Amino acid sequence: MKKITVETKVKGSIDKIWEFWTKAEHIVNWNFAIPEWHCPQAENNLEVGKSFRFRMEARDGSMGFDYEGTYTQIEPKTTIEYALGDERKVSIDFKKMGNAVSIVETFEVEDTNTLEQQQQGWQAILDNFKSYVESN
């Protein structure tokens, strides 16, 4: 299966970055690709075999979906891997780099959107995360 990788470097401690990535009260503030969308609900059970569900919706209420998966591997402050409901796999690696953390996210592509749309959407969410962490 084809995979796409997106990445960023976020200024901050690994402790803060891990917390902001994994806690529902933070996820709702950054987990969307464009300003016209938002993430009004997030549930995250960060344990292998447990699941997460993030509600993503257009702010005008015209459309939305649940982004859901099950964790397959967790190495605290280092790696998160999960399988989505359609069995596509995602991995996220966190690596301390001085006063910042490199985040590399690799995901198996889906058939609905173009590769470019998928890459841009996932990168935009990662960029939102960076902005959220660095401004809080």
UniProtKB/TrEMBL annotation:
Residues 13-134 form the Activator of Hsp90 ATPase homologue 1/2-like C-terminal domain. CDD domains: SRPBCC_CalC_Aha1-like_4. It comes from Flagellimonas meridianipacifica. This is Uncharacterized protein YndB with AHSA1/START domain. Transmembrane segments: none annotated. Pfam families: AHSA1. It comes from the Bacteria. Belongs to the AHA1 family.
